[in-house]
Amino acid sequence: MFGLVLLVGIPVLFLTGALSYAAYNPDLGPHNDMTPDKGLLGFYLFDWPTHPYWLYRLTQGVHVTLGVVLVPVLLGKLWSVIPKLFEWLPVRSVAHGLERLSLLMLVGGVIFEFVTGILNIQLYYVFPGSFYTLHFYGAWVFIAAFVVHVCLRLGRMSRALGSRSLATELRTDLAHTVPEPPDPDGLVPTAPAAPTMTRRGAVGLVGVGSLALLVVTAGQSIGGRLRNTALFAPHNRNPGGGPMDFQINKTAAAVGINPAHVGPAWRLEVRGRAPTLVFTRAQLLAMRRHDALLPIACVEGWSTDDQHWSGLRLTDLAAMAGLPGAGSVLVESVQSRGAFRSVVLRGNQIHDPRSLLALRVNGADLSLDHGYPARIIVPANPGVNNTKWVHRLTFRT
Ligand SMILES: Nc1nc2c(c(=O)[nH]1)N[C@H]1C(S)=C(S)[C@@H](COP(=O)(O)O)O[C@H]1N2
Ligand SMILES: [Mo]
Predict the structure, then answer these.
(1) Does 238 reside within a domain?
(2) How many CA atoms lie within 13 A of 140 on its CB side?
(3) Which one of the ligands is nearest to 249 CA?
(4) Keyword annotations for this protein (predicted)?
């Protein structure tokens, strides 16, 4: 049963993870690409859409929430094969050796993916290298072993599930709980001790554990009133009230924004075909502004409810730069160090009328921590690509 749940859940995790990777647009070059050696593994990269605007909020919310919820199931599954898990058999044949290797990749891979994922959503950035790179390559190693494992074991799982009635199992009390019959692979202990728990108890324990994790996690992505239930999430509370009352991932202080660079001396540079244009914030505010209702959705699974942004359309800025059909834009912030100080956005993102260089949010000037004087907000864009403290836009054909 645990295997069946994972058989459904793991592909969803892999798929949403792969989509998250595409959403970063690593095929747009070094500014976005944390895995320059991806080679063939980037085969499927596509133009990440801007419709529906909540797409990344959904896919990444599912990825993170499901990953957390599956932890008890995974632990239950590993527990159920413990006698075999730590077995160091001499390799009996090539086939047997390959199977043992695939199990090492399977168990090692799944533990690696869950541990790195959970550390990252809990903001423990303790990785030897970038989380992004480790989680990406780890996923491919794991999924290869997973596919092999499913091919080898699917028949047995369905035979086992078909061999007895679930309803009967769930009604059986401790006195009538008997060990599994011996199996050809020796998964069942030869001389098991008396049971201390019914199968109903084991399944119930895992089920209640998963449900509890769902309740304390999902609110960070669903938002609204449920946000307060996300006790397990580091971004579970709205900070302080007022128009800026939504999550902040990195504060200006945390990434070392120099106050002098975002004060009155700040200028926006817009480059393209025309000579470089330079604007003060007052000049930008005086231009025709547009509104968009968009969320911030972070790779870490939390997202905000839709916020009311106001600013200049990226497509208008491209036209002013002399490239009305711009195919990409390099966005640079005043931030001097850190991976996320610049990003490249694609043509479809530039030309969506909801894509803004935002100056205001919820009727007030952006706060410094939300990216004052100006930030990017693009529909369905991963939070990390919505660059804050922007000071230069370079449009390209
Ligand atoms: N310059 C810069 N912009 C940045 C970041 C950053 O570290 N530096 N963090 C990003 C991340 S990871 C997210 S999720 C969003 C969060 O925006 P918020 O703090 O306004 O909610 O900002 C993004 N913009
Ligand atoms: Mo983020």
Answers:
(1) no
(2) 13
(3) 1
(4) Membrane, Transmembrane, Transmembrane helix
pLDDT tens digit sequence for 316-347 = 999 999 999 999 999 999 999 888 899 999 99
Q: Examine residue 71 and state whether it is found in any structural domain, yes or no.
A: yes
Classify residue 232: in a domain, yes or no: no
Number of folded domains that form the chain: 2
* Best residue for ligand 1 mutational test, from 250, 300, 305 (most atoms within 8 Å of Cβ): 250
Q: Is residue 86 part of a domain?
A: yes
CA of 222: how far to CAs of 156, 234, 284, 305, 379, in Å? 38, 15, 34, 8, 17
Which ligand has the nearest atom to the CA of 340?
1
For residue 179, report the distance from its CA to the centre of ligand 2, in Å. 48
What rounded mean pLDDT belongs to the chain?
93
Task: Please check whether residues 215 and 317 belong to one and the same domain.
Answer: no
What is each CA distance from 72 to 110, 113, 199, in whole angstroms? 13, 15, 15
| Ligand 1 neighbour 389 (Cβ under 6 A) | yes
- The CA 296 to ligand 1 mean position distance, Å, reads 9
The protein residue whose alpha carbon is closest to atom 23 in ligand 1 is 384
Q: Give the confidence band of 180 by pLDDT, cuts at 50, 70, 90.
A: confident
Cα–ligand 2 centroid distance for 30 (angstroms)? 19
Residue 63 lies in domain: 2-226
**Co-location of 79 and 208 in the same domain:** yes
Structure tokens at 158: 């369905």
Cα–Cα distance measured from residue 253 to residue 255, given in angstroms and rounded to the nearest whole number: 6
What pTM was estimated for this model as a whole? 0.95
